[in-house]
């Protein structure tokens, strides 16, 4: 996907305002400008290479959005899609909200809450074309957090390292119970010492069983294995 000059300028503005917010609140351990550009912004934008991201009008939920990645870079580059950032920490969402102002992002909405509760909320359940998750949880936990939000036929994208064989094996039961099929492992390489990473793309084949997600804390404490 081609990034316009205006979007490039706004991504640089994001780099600036993120560093300002991060100096006040610990949004990320990444504090060097170049590291923010590569490790947060460029890493987020890899999703634009995926076929499922080529459409306009998509409704996209970023769970555990934290410091606003991949939420904000994707929202800048996909202005005709609707983005929702969800996190349980209000202070982080307040910081993201402040960042959206100089970025002139009118396609971003923020929701405070736990995934286990919001995943049972009919305003969010089975409602999203794409759910994104970066540095949130192991796959067997992440799928229970994220799959309930995805509409049947939609997709969940997980940012992961190349060393995920154990996670993939331990997620087999979660995938079966949550009707999630791994359709693609998209490998890519970031500049310098950042190295190789991958996006795992899951397609949701059917409505999520009503018992998922389980109550707060249970997915993490007792993951589906």
Can you tell me about this structure?
The structure is a single chain. The protein has helices at 5-24, 33-45, 71-77, 90-103, 115-118, 139-146, 165-170, 172-177, 218-221, and strands spanning 59-63, 82-87, 108-112, 128-134, 150-161, 180-190, 195-204. It has a seven-stranded mixed β-sheet, with helices on both faces. Helix 6 links the parallel strand 4 and strand 5. The longest helix is centred in the N-terminal third of the chain and has 20 residues, at 5-24. With 225 residues, it is an alpha/beta fold.
Stretches where pLDDT is under 50 for at least 5 consecutive residues are: none
CATH topology: Rossmann fold
Structural class call reads alpha/beta
Strands ordered across the widest β-sheet: 3-2-1-4-5-7-6
Distance between the amino and carboxyl termini: 37 Å
CATH class bucket: Alpha Beta
Beta-strand percent range:
15-25%
Radius of gyration: 17 Å
Q: Identify the CATH homologous superfamily.
A: Vaccinia Virus protein VP39
The helix-strand sequence is HHEHEHEHEHEHHEEH
Number of strands: 7
The CATH architecture category equals 3-Layer(aba) Sandwich
Q: Which descriptor suits the 3D outline?
A: globular
Give the proportion of residues in helices.
25-40%
Largest sheet: 7 strands, mixed
Helical run tally: 9
């Amino acid at each position: 996907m081609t990034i316009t000059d205006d979007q490039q300028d706004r991504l640089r503005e994001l780099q600036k305002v993120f560093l300002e917010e991060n100096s006040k609140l610990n949004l990320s351990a990444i504090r060097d400008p170049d590291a923010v550009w590569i490790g947060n912004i460029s890493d987020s934008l890899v999703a634009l290479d995926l076929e499922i991201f080529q459409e306009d009008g998509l409704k996209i939920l970023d769970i555990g959005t934290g410091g606003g990645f991949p939420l904000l870079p994707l929202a800048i580059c996909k202005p005709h899609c609707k983005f929702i950032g969800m996190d349980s920490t209000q202070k982080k969402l307040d910081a993201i909200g402040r960042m959206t102002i100089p970025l002139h992002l009118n396609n971003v909405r923020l929701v405070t809450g736990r995934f286990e509760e919001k995943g049972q909320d009919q305003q969010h359940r089975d409602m999203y074309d794409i759910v994104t998750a970066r540095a949130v949880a192991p796959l067997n936990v992440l799928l229970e957090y994220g799959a309930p939000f995805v509409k049947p036929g939609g997709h969940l994208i997980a940012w992961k390292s190349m060393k995920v064989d154990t996670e993939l094996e331990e997620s087999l039961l979660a995938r079966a119970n949550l009707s999630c099929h791994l359709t693609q492992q998209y490998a890519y390489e970031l500049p310098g010492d950042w190295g190789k990473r991958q996006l795992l793309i899951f397609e949701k084949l059917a409505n999520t069983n009503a018992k998922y997600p389980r109550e707060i804390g249970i997915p993490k404490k007792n993951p589906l294995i």
